Amino acid sequence: VQLVESGGGLVQPGGSLRLSCAVSGFTFSSYGMSWYRQAPGKERELVAHISSIGGITNYADSVKDRFTISRDNAKNTVYLQMNSLKVEDTAVYYCETRSYWGQGTQVTVSS
User: Is 63 exposed, middle or buried, given 0-12, 13-18 or 19+ CB atoms closer than 10 A?
Assistant: First the structure.
């Protein structure tokens, strides 16, 4: 099983980024997917989750109405669209499924 995140970077407050997580090694469409993040000195926290066929999504209160998780089962990829970014969104973002993790992608929100 391999999960590879991409799309992180430096963005100003109020800006947007879209993270991608390409998955291989298992039947992607059969499993839910999650995005987590970990800021320096803080515990890893769940940001968003999407069910296997994408019909159910859940978000942390801190990102609700700003972030959108989606998936393309034909491309074995899960996305995290992040809008109205805040300084406190700065963290390493990880995708996860079945206790498998990607390597993470850094998101830095700074002016």
Answer: buried
E strands, 7-99, in order: 9-11, 17-24, 33-38, 45-50, 57-59, 67-72, 77-82, 91-97
Evaluate whether 85 touches 16 at the Cβ level (below 8 Å). Answer: yes
* Sequence-ordered list of residues with C-beta below 8 angstroms from that of 40, at least 6 positions apart, any chain: none
Q: Residue 20 is encoded by which pair of tokens?
A: 């991608």
Give the per-residue pLDDT at 12: 98
Write down the pLDDT at residue 53.
81
How far is residue 106's CA from residue 76's CA, in Å, rounded to a whole number? 21
Banded model confidence at residue 103, pLDDT cuts 50, 70, 90: very high
